[in-house]
Amino acid sequence: MPSVAHFSDLLEQARLAARSLVEYGEGLLNPAVRLGVTGLSRAGKTVFITALVHGLMRSGRFPVFEALSEERIARARLSPQPDDTVPRFDYEGHVAALLRDRAWPESTRQISELRLAIEYQSRSGAMRELMLDVVDYPGEWLLDLPLLHSSFETWSAETLAQSRVEPRARLAAPWHAHLATLNAGGPADETATIAAARLFTEYLLACRNERYAMSLLPPGRFLLPGDAAGSPALTFAPLQLTPGAPGGLAPDGSLWAMMRRRFESYKEALVRPFFRDHFARLDRQIVLIDALAAFNAGPEAVRDLQSAFNALLDCFAVGRKTFVTQLLRPRADRILFAATKADHLHQSSHDRLEDILRAMVGRAIARADLAGADVDVIALATVRATREAEVRRGGETLPCIVGTPIAGEHAGGRSFDGNTEVAVFPGDLPANPDDLFTPGAASFRGLSAGGGESGGDGGDFRFVRFRPPPLQTTPDGAPALPHIRLDRALQFLIGDRLT
Ligand SMILES: Nc1nc2c(ncn2[C@@H]2O[C@H](COP(=O)(O)OP(=O)(O)OP(=O)(O)O)[C@@H](O)[C@H]2O)c(=O)[nH]1
Ligand SMILES: [Mg+2]
To answer: I need a labelling partner for 219 at 20 to 30 A (CA). Which of 233, 238, 296, 422 fits?
Structure first.
């Protein structure tokens, strides 16, 4: 087995090298930047891409994005994308939802791509064109990256160990009961395997749907299968293997051997091509992290998010000659870590949010720095759904945010109709990031109602989601989506390519 893996690594590397050469040639004619928008599910990737494209095409308010604020961008337009077999990103649909219906896009179910041609004037005065390619994909698929390093045996052991710890153990009970009836060394049994895969998938879905969103749930395609649904490569599950059994000794024809073969097919047929075709070619990366959702859910969720990211970012590792290193390292020379949905906090907390994020991804930052990539950390809201206000309560002035909760959201004993605004006192993030990781010490109390129309105190406003904002217009009359620091993100990600 090891020699086969080694051979396929070499093959991948040769393919990547050949393709880079072709793309390098094309790049001389048509300068292009391939921007990776990475993040777990619901992190805000689709909204980010939509807002970025809208902002560039309609000249949003981007004072920190120099090419635009210096009025050097003549025009940005959608162009035919480079990959003919990838569906196009539904920009028009997403924009219409945001602007016309004040609704967020649906969760992404398949990969898509978009190319934006930016005509700009260089600082020397020459007219140039830069192609910006962006890929959108279901966040669940990202979780599969660490699997490329993993054998069936280690993955089984880790997944089982995790599923025995609360709150997961409770959700895993039906699957565990079935698992106890399986004999790994016994003959392969298709009916039992189908049942195991179904129960295991139900467990993964239950974890994801729990209120306290848990992040670390590979294999990602069990949650969102794409076109592979129902194929053997998606019909396997972890097995209880005898402790100390040598990893290489699955008896021929056994359940164990079959599960292991399917696990390998999953990686080869689904995971590897996705990362090879989309991640290996990135020039720039933005990694979106919904840290606030985790803070709100408590220290367990924060640690969960952090371990999901450590597992991922270990794959961005530099200096280790692995296939995955090749995948992620070849060209990405700028990486931006972004805490999203900062519009759920008052601006006085944005710097603190950046500090906390820096602490969370510190290990990855150190590595990327060593590899010579520029790394930065930012707190942003790609579409700002709230505005700020001060609310007086009991002689005290509280810095609040005001927004329209989505229809059907509840908090503080009431349910919202999608048209009523509320003022929320978002609370302060702790000055010491460690507090968010330590049970009991958490000094982030979560969002609570701060008066205004909501009137009540202490309602649990932590999970209220706001509708997208009503549209603003720029000084020249063009419609623009409000945002927080999206211009700073753009300047970091592509500003240098537009000079
Ligand atoms: N307030 C606010 N909410 C946001 C923002 N960006 C995203 N959201 C919320 O986060 C949800 C998920 O955003 P998406 O862009 O769909 O997330 P995604 O990363 O594409 O998720 P998947 O497609 O499931 O992988 C949205 O439905 C909004 O509720 C933002 O800038 N501000
Ligand atoms: Mg999406």
So the answer is: 296
